[in-house]
């Protein structure tokens, strides 16, 4: 029987999904393999009737430079009972599958790690290689290498962010912008500093204090007052949605926020307008301070997930797709593929990345101690410092409350 491989995509979409799938398909076809695409993510591996399709060159050639994902994605997370009772080994045997390729973010990678261990413990000779994807850029790849999809999302987000800032400047108003990033602030930070936003709020900044809505609003007011002192009547504040996860349930309830949760136990942030919530809070505070300032909310989220991949990700995802074949032919399994800074294909073993207690792969946050990050805080952003206290008293009685570094205990 002809040897086969199977590919699945998990989590949410990112630019470059189809590039990886298309490249893998083309490379394995030319080397004599049959290529199957599994719809529904991991669900198909634990179903007696998996929804799969055979991928040929013409399909691969029609999707490799498109956004979105041809293969239907899913956040399905198998339980231990699924592994014990429902793993569909027959699907692999009937199709002579030699390799399972998983494409996804941290949760997909964590499940891939469980599958690699399961296959090893059961002595099932099926290789498993994971391709790291997420627009959040929060998978801990070496050398600070980006996860695929991030650069395209950053580019599109920067374009949207520039339009927002131009609107603020044109109309002398303020915008409160929320950007995707469930546990890390890479995307919000990039959109903010490429557009020279006066205030950027990411979860990693709160390394010496807990995150509260009060502190976030105080930082927003700090930027507005600082710009007023400078004679600037407009601006934008960008907030990573990751801070939202850190707010206490009591505080969220006080804002009237009720979460639903996905299969991985994460709050479904896309169902709640973070920008609207923070903008409402900011407007209330400005009114209390007697400041006549207009502000508007904008959410940057789903708009950047299914865009056509930019050149960076078209190149990078093609390399990753070819890298899967290279690692497979070298007998490497149970790993994540990446390209190092010298252009060489490397493997990163999932078992070496997981937390020994939780079994999950910990996310990579923004390193706020790097010069390139510290300079954004020190040289690009606008906020009240002790030197501004006297001038700030024109707008607030207690300027120290809005001192950016004191808010963060820096």
Report on the structure:
By secondary structure, the chain is of the alpha/beta class. It has helices at 17-30, 57-63, 80-86, 89-94, 106-121, 150-171, 186-194, 213-229, 242-246, 249-254, 274-289, 311-329, 350-353, 371-380, 389-392, 404-407; strands at residues 4-9, 34-38, 52-55, 97-104, 127-132, 174-179, 199-201, 235-240, 295-300, 335-339, 345-349. The protein has two domains: 4-149 and 309-353, 3-Layer(aba) Sandwich (Rossmann fold); 154-305 and 367-407, Rossmann fold (3-Layer(aba) Sandwich). It has a seven-stranded mixed beta sheet, sandwiched between helices. Strands 7-8-6-9 form a four-stranded parallel beta sheet, with helices on both faces. Helix 1 (17-30) runs antiparallel to helix 2 (57-63). The longest helix has 22 residues, at 150-171.
In terms of topology, how is this protein built?
Blueprint: E1 4-9, H1 17-30, E2 34-38, E3 52-55, H2 57-63, H3 80-86, H4 89-94, E4 97-104, H5 106-121, E5 127-132, H6 150-171, E6 174-179, H7 186-194, E7 199-201, H8 213-229, E8 235-240, H9 242-246, H10 249-254, H11 274-289, E9 295-300, H12 311-329, E10 335-339, E11 345-349, H13 350-353, H14 371-380, H15 389-392, H16 404-407
Helix pairs in contact: 1-2, 1-12, 6-7, 8-11
